[in-house]
Amino acid sequence: MPTHLRTPPVSIHLWALVIVALLLFTPAVSAEVLIDEGSNYATFDLESAAGTYAGTPHEIGIYNIQDWDGLYFVYVKVSGGGNAGILKANPSYSSAVTLKIGSDVVGSGTAHYNALFNSAGDVAGVQIWLEIDSWHPTGYIGTQTVTIHSDSTLFNGIILSGSGSYPAFLRVSPERPIGIRSSFENSLVKGTHIARSHYHWENVIDINDEFVSLTRNLDGNTYTSTLQITSDSGYFVDTSPNDIDVPYIGSGTWNVTNPNGRIYSGILGSDAPGTPTNPIVTVYVRNSQTGALLAGAHILIEGTPGVDNWTEYVNTTLPSGTGSYSLPGMPYQFRILAESPGYTSTGYQYFRAGDTVIVDMEPYIDAPTNESNTFLEFYIRDLNANPLGGATVAVDGQWLYSNNNGYARFEVSKNATYPYTVRKSGYMTISGTATVADGPRYVVNVVLGPGTVPTNPPATDPGGPGATPTPDRRTNEEKGQAVIDMIADNAEGIGALALICLLMGLLKLMVKW
After folding, report:
1. pTM of the model
2. pLDDT 10s digits, 318-366
3. Residues 6+ away with beta carbon under 8 Å from 50
4. Pick the CATH number of 278-364 from 2.60.40.1120, 3.40.50.850, 2.60.40.10, 3.40.50.10320
5. 476: left (phi over 0), alpha (psi -120 to 50) or beta
């Protein structure tokens, strides 16, 4: 009988040591994923512009289409009594549409219009809009024309005036980045334009012994950016949409700026990139209500390895409202104090090296700028009464972000009623109205529950074109209480589900060990 030699089993501990050794002796590579997410909002008014020849509204003009990832809403309101015959016969319209660039399908959605009437019943204007369900203009950059296609007569064949006059027709531009166009000379429709999108931007920067590599094309999408490298050997800039490898040639800095103006930066050391260097801290000083960077803000950064004896590291003015600095890593902690004319100091804000530091400053306003105005203030919270920062609050065509305290403030005319909408990604959208009298300020408390609730523009209903939905006349407190009651009614089921999830997690841990 042949003898079978049996190899003794290798100890698990020995394998662990081998793996650790391999990790320790693997050349260091510095790779970082750069991500930016948020909302884009554009609005401009061409009501007072000169009118040009009329045409059918069948196109969307977009300046720098790569800046409008996640486009979901495009709108224009037109004043005047044109198209009276069509609009009286068909006061509302809804139709599925396909969106194309050339022959390429880049999106789909629904086109709508509502006729506007005065008290005498005469046509006073029309509002048209697109709700975009799918949007994927992959690979397209720069100014593009998106055509709107329908199986029926688009917008029932209404004709709208273009804006501008020969030869200065008004087209898309940095000041007018996106809008619905007439079929004459690509001119934007004469009216008030609004567009909204949710954007996602992503680059990957990879620094190794040979190259600084920037990847802009990910998952079939192109995310444009500006790469700047300053080193001992000179200055390099690239704004192409391509992935790029730049030879690693000495100490310096790198910056990547995305289309929304956000800057990411780091240091290129004189030694190999794997050599440890101090972490980089990028500071942004912003208007808490609009998110705009505060040019000329002054910052003071102090640090300590313990709890006392703070040492000054940075004391400077930010020309553009942002800056990047190399600071010692652990065990150091840091604090920042920001000041800007016209804004209230927020006091010290604490952070660690390597963090991205955002300082949101409140505009300093004691009283409305006009004695005929008052303040309409919003406090946005979740179901646990925690403030929700970064919520978008829209009031009568104006919009602001809630600050870290969930607060947003509008200056509005007294003795009026204002529609408002509050939305935040991952939460229900709440809409309502707020009435102000002649007092100094009025407060609206809004509670957002988790999830999303589909909303319909005025005078539309999934049940059919032209139907007007029943208005929700509950107060925000009543809406919030309804959500809380729903959770309470289902508390037993929710608790059981949580217990199951806990047991599953424990089982996984037991299997793992």
Report:
1. 0.43
2. 888 888 888 887 778 899 999 888 787 778 888 888 788 888 887 766 6
3. 163, 164, 165
4. 2.60.40.1120
5. alpha
